[in-house]
Amino acid sequence: MFDPSAARRQPFVEIIARFAREDGDHATSVPGLTVHRRSEQAVPSCAAYRPSFALIAQGVKKVTLGHETYIYGGSDYLLTSFDLPVTSQIVQASPESPYLGMVFEIDVAKISPLLALLDRPAATAQVREPAGASSEPPEQRGMSVAALTPELEDAALRLLRLLDRPGDIPALLPLIEQELIFRLLTGPHAARLRQMTMVESQSHQIGRACAWLKEHYALPLRIEDLARRVSMSVSSLHHHFKAITAMSPMQYQKQLRLQEARRLMVEDMLDAGSAGHQVGYESPSQFSREYARQFGAPPLRDAGRTRRSLLGRLAGEPEMLSEG
Fold it and tell me: HTH araC/xylS-type domain: from which residue to which, for each copy (predicted)?
C-alpha cells in the first residue's frame, strides 16, 4: 500500500544518507545542523541535548528525560527548549533500512525578533496561534514531541538541501532558519519557545539555573545559593525546575556528573576513583552506587563494556552506542 508520508520523507532519506555514509553523528557545512546514521538498534546511551529541532527521516528513537519517555519517528519532530541531560536509544534500525535523522540547534537569541513581529496586531490577525498559546502556564516540560506539519517539513527539507549548494548557505540559511523558528512559534508547543525569551518568566530563570549547573556541575550544590542566583525562592525553584526538566536540581546535577564521569573513563581512560573525584564526588562508594544505579553496572565494568562497544562500532561490528 502506498504510504504518502514515507514518500514525503524520501528526499530526507536520500540527502541524509549521502552526507552520513557511515554510522555516527556528522557535522555539516550548515552551522548548527548535524545528520545521524545508525544501522542497528542501540543500547541506551547518555547525551546532553541543547535547544534544538530534531527530525527522523527513517527509523524510531526513544528519549528518556527523568522518568518520562518520548518516542518519535518519521511523522513527528522533537523540540528541546533547554539544556537537558537525557538517555536516548535507537529502537528501529537495520543495515537495509538504517536510522537516519537530522538535528538543528535553535539560537534562542533569534526568537525574540520573530516574537515581536508575531505579536503585532496585523500579524496576529493573519497568523493564528493555538488557543491560549501565549498564556499557557510556564510549567511545561523542556522537551516535547509534536506532529510534523507540511510547512515545517518543507522548511526542514530546504535546510537539508543547502548541503548540496554550499554557496547558497550564507544568503539562504538565515531565511530558512527564521522560517523554521516561525513555524515552531506558530505550532502547538510555541509557549515553550516564548517562555525562553521572557526575562522575568520562571522558564527563563530555570534556563539560567540549568546553564549554571551545566558549567559548575562539579561544585557542591546548595539550593539556597542557586535560588538566590536566579532570583527565585527555594520552593519556586524546586517546583518550576522539576516541572520543566522532570528532575530536581540535585538530580539534574547528578545526571551531568555521571555522564561526564563516564566520558572521562571511556575517552580519557581515567580510573573510577579519579573520574568520580573530578566530577565532584568525595565518596568513592557513593559514586559507585549512583553510577551503577544510573548505568546498570559498576563504573569499571560499564566503562569497559562501553569502550568495547565503541571499538566494535569502529571495526564495523553491530553493537553500538548512540547519542545522535
Answer: 207-305
Burial of 103 (0-12, 13-18, 19+ CB in 10 A): buried
Cα gap 167→149, rounded to integer Å = 28
CATH number of 4-195: 2.60.120.10
DSSP per residue, 192-208: HHHHHH-TTSHHHHHHH
CATH of 199-247 given 1.10.10, 1.10.860, 1.10.3470, 1.20.1250: 1.10.10
Nearest to 136 by CA among 96, 189, 100: 189
Distance CA 245, CA 252 (A): 8
pLDDT tens per residue across span 103-145: 999 998 898 888 888 776 544 444 444 433 334 444 578 899 9
Beta bridge pairs of residue 47: 86
C-alpha cell of 40? 542497528
Between helix 169-185 and helix 150-161 the angle, nearest 10°, is 160
pLDDT average, residue stretch 247-259: 96
CA quadruple 82, 32, 259, 309: dihedral positive or negative? positive
Q: What is the pTM of this model?
A: 0.83
Phi first, then psi: what are they for 132, rounded to 5°? 75, 10
Return the sign of the alpha-carbon dihedral for residues 24, 168, 185, 227: positive
Residues 6+ apart with CB under 8 A from 25: 34, 36, 323, 324
